[in-house]
Amino acid sequence: MIRVIALALAALTLACSPRSAAEPAAAAQARAQVHPESGLEVVPLVVVSGAQRHAFRVEVAASPQDQARGLMFRTRLGPDEGMIFPTRTPQMRGFWMKNTPLPLDIIFIGEDRRIMNIAAQTTPYSLESVYSAAPAIAVLEIAGGRAAELGIEPGDRVDW
Questions:
Q1: What is the pLDDT of residues 58-116, one digit of tens each?
Q2: CATH code of the domain in which 75 resides
Q3: What are the residues whose beta carbons fall under 8 Å from the beta carbon of 55, sequence distance 6 or more?
Q4: I need a labelling partner for 134 at 20 to 30 A (CA). Which of 21, 95, 110, 126 fits?
Q5: What pTM did the predictor assign?
Q6: Whether residue 77 is found in the same domain as residue 141
């Protein structure tokens, strides 16, 4: 009988503990911040087009290896997903579509966090490079045609 009461008290303590309720939520949030396919960190990103705010969840390709792989071999990309390629210092950027089966909009972002230029609907598997119009601090890749669909254009602000 004492053993049953002790087990009941232990279960009640665990069920009422704020820590036990927070742990599953924190674990779920941590899992949600890493992309299941790439293993890269996922962060919120917003493109501000006038009064419009377009929200995305983007993978961060931070290392040279992650940036070299990018979205290669990926067969799907949701309408509000993407990948950001940040750099420590502004530099001219060039991207190609080698081993990339999806058309992408490749968006070049300047030091002021504004879009400089967009290579829209890039051709899957193309070895032809597309370039930033000036030194960029980041490049954003989203599903091909999505920028035009949302009215995203040069001059819009990108925050992440």
A1: 999 999 999 999 999 999 999 999 999 999 999 999 999 999 999 999 999 999 999 99
A2: 2.60.120.1140
A3: 44, 45, 46, 80
A4: 126
A5: 0.80
A6: yes
